[in-house]
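Morning!

As promised:
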Amino acid sequence: MKRLPGRTNEIFSILSKGKFISERGKNEKYFDIIKNNFKDLKNYFLNIDFMLEDDNGYFYFSKPNANEQEIERKIIQFEKFIDILDIFNSLDDKILIGKIFSISQIKLECENTARLREKLRKMNIEGKTNYEKIKNIIKELEKNNFVELYDIIEEKYIVLEAYEYLNKIVSKMFTNNRAK
Amino acid sequence: MPLKISIKQFIQILNQGKEVIDTLFGKKDNLQKDEIISYITSSNPENIFNRLLIHNIINEKNGKINLDDRIITLIEDYLEIGEINTETISGDIKNLKNNISYYKNDNQIKYLRNIKKTLRKVNNTIRRQIILLDNQVDRTFKTEQNYNNRLKKLNNYRKERDDILKLIEETKDFLEEKKGFFNNVRDNDIQFLQYELKKTFYENKEYLINIQAQIIDYLNRIKINSEIIEKIHKIKELRDNAELRSKTNIEIFFQKNTSLLFNKIESFKWNVPIDFLTNNDKGRKILKNVRKKINRKNEEPLKSRKQIKKKTKNKKEIQRLNIDKFFEKFEKSNLDLFNFIFQNKFPVKIPQEIDDKLSYFVEISLDFEKKIYFNKEIKYYFYEDKNGKKNKLGYAVIFPKNKN
């Protein structure tokens, strides 16, 4: 078997937690390693039952033999992202890949727009204040490497390529109004 | 009006004022006179400053100094930096046409020089404009934060790309129209410049097609994005109305989605290799620490009886009821299960609130289902809770089977 690139263990450690590796951000070095050794790594991970997936500027793991009975839990997992995407897509300044935003900026817009204020109030996320709620939303996205801390003092975050994955799920879902 | 000077003198002045020109060109902001003078390294900075001012290399307005526009244009043109104005190309072609006709009437070298200068300028402008456009398109899509501005800018670049194409066609037509002149003029430079210009058109034609494709791709991606925005609002609405499963394909979708993000993440459990603990320094260190911890627990200093008594008093130890033994006792009694539990005197350490007693009742009726029987009778138990509220509790009368 071909020699695997260095840091394969670190790459595995990130991806096996369900996290993403994007072209930009702190995991840029891992992105380059995967990109340059994609075929070897894909074959290697497949041996241990992990499918290395390549998308537009990001990599992630899927499990080819995943238990399909766990739909219930998956839907619940996804539902929390519906709320987040709904709020983010209702902002005037849309959250797009590469965008740098601050918690205070989102908080200000949410507090100044009645519609957004209401969405945030009804949202099932921990936090007593709007600031805490938004911070927890961002933490949720940060956990899976959809966004990354950009400026610690001003609490600014950058949107990574992997964020597109969430939008892709939405685009692949269809409602009864459309042709099935 | 600047004083009449020779080229040599002009270059000399530029050289003397190089620090000032460099600073003012870089900053482009108006600076104070004193600040400007501080940049001049020569022994007599005041003198040089005045020379630059007299010859209009720099201008002074309300105490602020700025670089003359002609110097800025000279540097930008030579270094091929700064803003480019494609609108001048039409003027340049007009200029070329005029100079060609002057030259035809009077073979003066100055007309030829003007033609060469303008051909070079047109070539540079087109080349630079295309590169700039490409950069702007890419930068706008990736960094423009405002959604509406992003859309507007990309649409404007689309028009700009069309304008460049028009200019190229206009210049091509001009070259074709003046074919006779370009073929007959005996000047290598002009022949070369004409060739360079045609080369630019040829090379950049594909580049412009790619830029157009890129703009369309970006615009499509924005369009898809706005469709997604619409969709997410719709999905959220369905979710809020609890219609997500009935009105979308979410269940089928997640049956197929095997991404680890939504799948249970396995935690990896592993055992410590024995070799590591015995033949490795790190392993031995860990083992030593573990031993220390175990010994520390065992070596807890002996306490006096008084201390132990005090401790037990402060900290009520809780014990779990041994259900098996308790059931054996129940089998020997003559009471039904409910009354047996409620009348039993439990040791202090055993939880014995009403809720605890009820959970014993349920636990026994489930665990010893085969050893008990219900006599289909419901009795009631009346009690007062902590707040003095009267409660009525219905219970099934249960006896052990061995009493049957």
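Residues 8-62 of chain A form one domain.

Hope this helps with the figure draft.
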